[in-house]
Each structure stands twice: as structure tokens, then as C-alpha cells.
Amino acid sequence: MKPKRPPLPATASAAAVALLLSLTACGGDASAGGDGSTVTVTVGYQSRTINTVTAGTLLRSLGHFERQLNALGDGVTYKVDWQDYATGAPITAQMTAGKIDIGSMGDFPLLINAARGKQLGKPTRLVSVTGYNLRGGLNTVVTAPGSPLTSLKDLKGKKVSTSVGSAADGTLVRALQRAGLDPDEDIEKLNQQPAVGASALSSGSADALSQFVAWPGLLAHQGKAKALYDGARLGLPTFHGVAAREDFAKERPAVLEAFLRAQAQATDYLDAHPVAAAEKVAEATGLPAEAVYLYNGAQGIATFDPAIRPSLVAALEKDVAILKDARLTGDVDVDAFVDDRYVKKALGPAAYARHLAAGPPEPAGEVWPKGAAKTLPFTSARSLLKYVAAHREQVRAAYVPDATTGTLWFADRSVWVADGDELLPFVTPENARDHIAGHGGARVVPYAEALERAS
């Protein structure tokens, strides 16, 4: 990338950084309050960033953290103050101001959290992971449904909305570079909050939108967008995690461990009851349960596990360069930021080792029948399509994994390819074209034709 870069626009992301700096003068300690026998623990979370639900929305609805605190038996009365934010930047601001004890956010915001904490003398630590995708499928570039754009190269000279400093921006930068485009010179980047970017896409003031979970899937489900680039093509892990103030962790390690045990309980609940979990998150956030399930379901794009995997730490180290180029951080000591002592103790060494050894599920299709408490799994796209064709009015949602990247997507929003007797789904036209190029006779077919062929 070129060393010169114009100043960042004064958008919500830049404003959040300014807010962070101003809040550091507020002081205060959210870890203690009341008359000395009552302690308030303040948790910052992002209800609509559904890759963090096991440390936020779902955890709050289940009440596991409060029960874990009550079980400490240390004679202290604990209260939990749940604070909901749209992005990670204000959580970082409040943490460095001593007003939030524990916060969850994405991998790029976590690095900014680490950098700001060190810069301001209020260090924070990454203490667990919420959801991850080892290939990067949590970030997607989408365009309007009727857009003629079919590949990243088509973005040259176009306006692309993203949130600078987010993992979605990192995906955009890397993807453009791989496509032979300069992220600084060849596109006009609009630095916008996800909701603002979604509106810009709908109004036509943005040609494309690069965003993180759950915005791409939400817009696709609503018929307001179609996928242009599948982040899993990068093959680089993306994840969300939990950060804690270092002083809080040292002062109240039992409380932090109680939080991490509760997070593990919420993770177990999500794994055992994925449909019910999606419904709970949908009720709390107003998001469609079908979009929540795309990411958080049994075969969802996100895999939930509190263990801090070495591959995720390695990904963080690679992410630093993107943030440095955007002038959002300097060097970040990732090794110093990562601290898995608390989650290891909370889960136990043996259980933690099992978590590290476990991997994401093998990609498979699912159908969510209307009124059902469970989804139906399918081992092939053809068998899933055959079921959908025979039960069209009874299907709430159908999900299929991309035939090359494994990224789950809505069956009716996928690009379908007929390759001999096979019917193969792809998230984007680009993924489909890559397959067709190596398979003579393969061709794209409409979803309706794919259903007819399967039945």
C-alpha cells in the first residue's frame, strides 16, 4: 500500500476515537460501588453483533453470570450493569476510562483496545474468544440486488462503505490488494457505521458495502443485498473476543473467572439448543431469527468456543499492519495483550485442552421448518433442494455451505451451478465462476431451476 494516505473522514468511527480520548478524563472505577459490601460489575457488549452473544446478548438473557456471582459465597452482593453499544470503539473508551470492566468486540477493535489501553496507561487483556471462523467467512462484501457488479475488480472507481478499523475493513483492504486494486487509490472508501452503510447501499449512494456479522446476512435475507465477495476466500481467521481491564482482573480474578464460566455455559447452551438460542437473540435484538441462525446455528458461519487458539493469535499479529496503515494504532504487542490464564482456570486445564483440540463442524446444509424447534440436516445440496421443493410452504429458511469455501448462506440467495448431476451452491458469482472455469459443461442456473432439477 502507498505510504501517503488522506486524513480519515470525520465519521462515526473517527468520532468514536475522539470520544475515547475525551472519556479518559472522567476517571471512576466501575468494579466497586455502593457501601463496600456491594460490587457493581459493568459489562460492555454489542447486542446486534451476534458473534459475541455468548458474552453478551445470550449470556444476559440466560442469567448465568449473575448466578455464578451469587455462587461465589464471598459475602459480597454483586450487581451486573449490562451496557449495550453499536460498535467496539465506545466500549474501549469506557474501559480505558475505568467505567467498563469486561467488554466484547471483534478482532480489529480488540487490537485498538490493546493499543489505547497501553497508550493511556490503562492496559487491557484479551481473556477469551466468543465466535470465530478460521477462513474469514464472518466478513462479506455485498452490493445492491440489481447491481451489475460481479467481482471485486468491478469496484474500481466505485464508492464502498465500510467501518475503518473494523475486521470488515481489513477484509476489504486485503481482498482488493489480492484483486490487484489499490485500496487507497482505486475506490472511494466511505467510513460509515454499519447501519449508515446499509442505508447508503439501499439509496444508491454506495455501490458496495463491506461489513461484519450480521449485516451482510441480514441484508441478503431482507432482499436488500447480494453477496459480491466471500471473506473466506482470504483463508485468514476472523473472530470476536472478550477483553478485561488489567487492574480489574488483578483486583477481582474470581469475578472474571465467574464471567468466563458463565460464558462457557452460554456457549454450551448455544451448541445444545441452537434454534432456541437464535430465537432468544432475535427477541432481544429485533434481528430476524433466520439471519441470526445463519451465523450462530448448528452449522453456522461462526463457531463458538472461549478458548484462545494459537491460530487466532497469529491472525491478530497479521492484522496489526492493516491498522497501522490506517493510522489507528502503532505497533501492538499481541503476546502481552493475550492472557489465557483466567479462562484456563475457569474451565479447568483438561477441559481447556479439549476445547483447543476441538474444531468447527463439517459444513452441511440445514432446513428450518416453520414452527419447528429443530432444523433438519442434509448431507448434500441436492437432497436439501429436493426437500425444499416438496415442502415449499413449510420452509422457514434453508441454508447451504459454499461448495468451495464452506461459508453457509441462504439457499435462495446462493448462486447455483449445475455440474453434471451435481447441484452446487456458492455465496458469490466469483466463487461460482472459479468452479465453472475448471469444470467443462458446468453452468449457473436460477434457484427455481435448481429446485426443479432436484425434484
Classify the fold: give the CATH topology of the largest domain. D-Maltodextrin-Binding Protein, domain 2
Going by CATH, the homologous superfamily of the largest domain would be: Periplasmic binding protein-like II
> Structural class, judged by helices and strands?
alpha+beta
The helix tally amounts to 19
Output the strand order for the largest sheet: 2-1-3-10-4-11
What share of the residues lie within helices? 40-55%
Q: How many E strands?
A: 18
The coarse overall form would be: globular
Sketch the major β-sheet.
6 strands, mixed
- What CATH first level of the largest domain would be assigned? Alpha Beta
CATH architecture classification name of the largest domain: 3-Layer(aba) Sandwich
Low-confidence stretches: 1-35
Nearest-angstrom radius of gyration? 22 Å
**Into which percentage range does the β-strand content fall?**
15-25%
Number of domains: 3
Q: Quick check: average pLDDT?
A: 92
The CA-CA distance between the termini, in Å, is 50 Å
Protein name: ABC transporter substrate-binding protein
Signal peptide: 1-27
InterPro entries: SsuA/THI5 (IPR015168)
Pfam families: NMT1
